[in-house]
Design goal:
The complex is a heterodimer of chains A (267) and B (355). Helix content of chain A is 31%, strand content 26%. Chain A has 267 residues and is an alpha/beta fold. Chain B has helices spanning 15-50, 58-65, 71-105, 118-132, 138-159, 166-189, 193-204, 212-239, 243-248, 253-275, 281-292, 300-320, 329-350. The longest helix of chain B is centred in the first third of the chain and has 36 residues, at 15-50. The chains are: A alpha/beta (267), B mainly alpha (355).
Chain lengths: 267, 355
């Protein structure tokens, strides 16, 4: 990537109505790295991601893109630098893959500058990167869950942004597709230097794929840093309210969390 | 296996070409459908201009339209019949475009302005104007237009809860339509039979006795609104992906949605003011156009053409298909549109999309 964009927050508080969901967060998203946000259900991690992508107006504090308050920037120029794959996007009935991915080009088009060869190029790159080129003229409705998720990622890629935010991109996928999607995102990070922020459910995959891990509870940060330092038995017990053991992942040597329930405990 | 392989253009199969080809096939279909609809529209227009108390051969009609006919036929075609046909095309196009915008914006085929009470608002205002304030002619149209705008604003405000979703808007709109219909019924029962009859003709929607005056008002209004609607269609394609995705792509969701609603309401308001609340044209045009154009994208231009075609053809049928007596065009569109509404309600419930 030619230029690198920086994203950080200072004293960010986000609320739905009167209820604050994220309180006083000051975070620097490391540029050129993969950041993974984890936490229990309703801990505010998705809200935080939506806030980062300027979808929510802060109650107080602010999100900064390249040092400027993101809400003061024209939304379309932000969209050329920062992309978001929301949790449940809607594919219009009957739309075909190339057309859906093409919608990601919106921020690069104007009132009187419509579709161009550069747009074809960007869509083609996105399809190749996600391994979906041979689906180009297929209706999205006919695809499997894993293929569909790749198409949505392709749409976010066609947007051609340095910063890419993804809200639980592996939900509804079986484990092999989860790994596939995370490998793909890692490729994008390693090859193109994209800064990637992912909200993820699976703690072990989070530990494996994160350069930088953020653990949230009740709208605040409990631990932050390299997974090997951040993920401890104590931290997991605090965040998820569950006793556990943390052992080295036999494949990646990153921390692996083994939950301890009320049954089947041999130790 | 890859479907594009069967259609590859020559030896060059670079990814860019694959993408360009996939997109071009769709665009080609939309272009073909658009041209075909325009041609059929023109053909029906010629037929409707040729029929009447004096039948004019279709070729002479075409000649007159391009200013080459002889005096008498030219007068019949261009002065007596053309205004009515043009009003049908303009109003039909406005209905079709407005319906397609609403349905796409709200992700709901029921969210058409004639179902969610916007034309009912125009009707109520017009009937009150006709019966209670003794208005006529242009004043009724102006009041109907204002009624459509006011009703749309009221529905939007009532459905607003940190944003407007399609489902809530449809429910509020249907309730609003019921309320406004009762206002109309009440007014009709409180007035004498002759006045009530006048009002009923307006309420059914009719193209009878349309002159160049109507064209001169409706023409410029649609000439401004249609290009605006087509330009705003850019937002519509992004809003189709859901609010979050639209925001992420750099669309100011609420502002753009508001802009689209204003244009769509103005379109349906202008059309209703001109020809009355002709039922179901706005409702059926979008789905028909999308089906023809390959169920892909939003098909705004085809929707407008389908609207124009439906209203023109329905008017032709209303004038000619039922013996000597002319029917108001709204009767014919209802005969066609009502079964589709029933089918849609039955079908969406079955697939569990809940309308």
């Amino acid at each position: 990537m030619s230029e690198e964009h920086r994203l950080h927050t200072r004293g960010l508080t986000l609320a739905y109505g009167q209820r604050p969901v994220v309180t006083d967060l000051s975070i620097d998203i490391p540029t050129g790295k993969i950041t993974v946000i984890v936490g229990a259900n309703a801990c505010g991690k998705s809200t935080f991601l939506r806030g980062l992508a300027r979808l929510l107006t802060p109650r107080s504090g602010a999100v900064y893109l390249d040092g400027k308050e993101i809400h003061t920037l024209p939304t379309k120029s932000v969209a050329a630098k920062l992309g978001l794959l929301p949790q449940s996007p809607v594919a219009p009935d009957g739309i075909r893959v190339a057309d859906l991915v093409g919608r990601g080009r919106y921020p690069h088009q104007g009132w009187f500058r419509n579709w161009s060869a550069a747009d074809d190029e960007a869509v083609a790159d996105a399809l190749v990167a996600t391994g979906t080129l041979d689906l180009a003229s297929r209706p999205v409705d006919e695809l499997s869950g894993g293929q569909r998720q790749r198409i949505w990622i392709a749409m976010a890629l066609a947007q051609d942004t340095d910063l890419l935010l993804l809200d639980e991109p592996t939900t509804f996928l079986d484990v092999s597709h989860q790994v596939e999607v995370l490998d793909l995102l890692t490729d994008l990070n390693r090859n193109d230097g994209k800064t990637i922020v992912i909200v993820l459910h699976d703690l072990n995959l989070a530990c494996r794929y994160a350069d930088h891990l953020i653990a949230m509870k009740d709208g605040t940060i409990v631990a932050e840093g390299v997974a090997a330092d951040a993920v401890t038995e104590e931290m997991v017990t605090t965040v998820f309210g569950m006793p556990c053991r943390v052992v080295p992942d036999p494949v990646s040597r990153t921390p692996m969390v083994v939950p301890i329930g009320r049954h089947h405990s041999a130790v | 296996m890859a479907t594009y392989l069967g259609h590859r253009p020559g030896a060059d199969r670079s990814p860019r070409v694959v993408v360009a080809w996939a997109r071009r096939r769709r665009r080609a279909r939309v272009a073909t459908v658009t041209l075909a609809l325009a041609a059929v529209c023109f053909a029906v227009l010629c037929v409707s201009l040729s029929l009447g108390d004096v039948d004019v051969p279709v070729l002479d009609v075409a000649r007159s339209l391009f200013g080459a006919g002889d005096g008498g036929i030219g007068y019949i075609v261009n002065e007596l019949r053309l205004p009515r046909a043009l009003v049908a095309i303009l109003a039909g196009g406005a209905f079709g475009l407005s319906g397609a915008i609403f349905q796409t914006l709200m992700h709901n085929p029921l969210a058409s302005p004639d179902i969610i009470g916007i034309t009912a608002g125009a009707s109520a205002a017009a009937v009150l104007g006709l019966l209670s304030f003794g208005l006529d002619g242009f004043a009724v149209s102006a009041v109907a237009f204002a009624g459509a705008l006011a009703t749309a604003a009221a529905i939007y405000l009532l459905a607003w809860r940190k944003g407007v979703t399609g489902y809530r808007l449809v429910l509020v709109g249907i309730a609003m339509a019921a309320m406004l219909t009762s206002v109309v019924s009440y007014s009709l029962t409180r007035t004498d039979v002759y006045d009530a009859r006048q009002a009923l003709v307006w309420l059914t929607g009719s193209l009878n006795a349309k002159t160049w005056t109507t064209v001169q008002i409706l023409g410029p209004i649609t000439a401004v609104l249609v290009p605006l609607a087509l330009l705003a269609g850019r937002w519509l394609t992004t809003l189709q992906l859901g609010d979050n995705a639209a925001w992420a792509l750099g669309v100011s969701v609420e502002r753009c949605r508001m802009g689209l609603i204003v244009v769509a309401v103005a379109l349906v308001g202008a059309a209703t003011a001109a020809v009355g609340p002709v039922a179901f044209v706005a409702f059926v045009s979008g789905p028909i156009a999308r089906r023809l154009a390959g169920d892909n994208g939003i098909a705004l231009v085809p929707s407008a053409l389908v609207g124009a075609l439906v209203l023109t053809a329905a008017d032709l049928a209303a004038q000619r298909a039922f013996g000597a007596g002319q029917l108001p065009v709204g009767v014919v569109t209802s005969i066609v549109g009502a079964p589709y509404l029933l089918w849609l309600l039955a079908n969406t419930n079955r697939v569990g999309r809940g309308g």
